[in-house]
Design goal:
Layout lengths: L1 H13 L1 H21 L13 H12 L8 H17 L6 H17 L2 H21 L4 H81 L5 H28 L20 H10 L3 E7 L7 H21 L5 E8 L3 E8 L16 H12 L3 E6 L5 E8 L4
Parallel strand pairs: 1-2
Antiparallel strand pairs: 2-3, 3-5, 4-5
Amino acid sequence: MSELIRSRRAWLGAHPLVADALTSAVLTLACLLVAAFQDSYGLPGKQPDLVSGLIVGVVVMSLTLRRRMPVAVLAFVLVGCLTLTALGYVPMLGPAAAYLIAIYSVASHRGLATSLPVGAFGLMLFIVSMALDGYWFWQAVSNSVLLIGVWWIGRSLRLRRAYLDELEARARRLERAREADSRAARAEERSRIARELHDVVAHHVSVMTVQAGAARRILHRDPEAVQDALSTIEQMGRTALGEMRRLVGVLRTEAEPARSELSPQPGVHDVNGLVDQLRETGLQVQLWIEGESRALSPGVDLAAFRLVQEALTNTLKHAGPQARAWVRIQYADRQLEIEVEDDGRGLVAGLGRPGGNGHGLVGMRERVALYGGDLRIGPRSGGGFEVRARFPLEVQ
């Protein structure tokens, strides 16, 4: 039931003309019922009849257009009120309520340059009409205060809407800026990953070239050595081809010129050295490598090392001086699992916010996604921060 009510409210909010038409119709019916049983309290004038009912109905129903044409609706309501006064009818609730709503609509849907003079003119006519209708002085004063209060409420709501609209616009601008920064970070990380994969592929191609040259020189002298060299070339070629496919997939911008030197890229076997370096900085790190170690594809090997490196770097930066970290690398049958945890205050430092600005977290996601893995980054149960990744391994 509540869902139905919310959906209908949302629909009416998206169709203000229909909402105002329904409100005007209900208000018209209520005003006509009140006018039919109205007590004139001894005020001079004609009692409500069919003519006055028609005028009241038309005046109140004009509020349907109060948001689109508030000034015109106010003018129409004024004409209706003056018509009833000129015909000598006693004051009725319907026109008075329509007049207050029209004043509110002008203040709520038009700027100060329009609503202030229109409201002042309406107040003057309101005072004159009350004097003609025989109201007492204090009644005229209280009704005037009511009219001014209605105008002020409409003006305040307009200012509040403008303020909320500005906040929403600012939030949209910030969201677009954050998305642009995130795209730039992803592009930067992909470019860096592509350069590293380029080095991996170039290394394998270099080995293939050397092996092919050696095989050519000993082709007639040592056929068995040639067979070994060809097997190595075949294996290297397949590995290089797989890495090349990933390189084409991750590269989104123009590749930078290849670096002249082909320095070896780090891998899981270098995590021990990385942990020793961080221990020298004062960070307490414990490392476990579980399962039977195996040869990994160069891309996965590099991605796993970079993930541990980035996670421990974030721990060093954000976890605090007394933090401890734990690294677990597990070789499973078909996957490589990596867990990096700390007991610091990484979440407080902002690392746990989704879509954070840290480019390192973006790089982690890009690397793991590149090899079809899963990644979880977030607060650790019991305090601290954790990074959990899973890389699927090809069956040899």
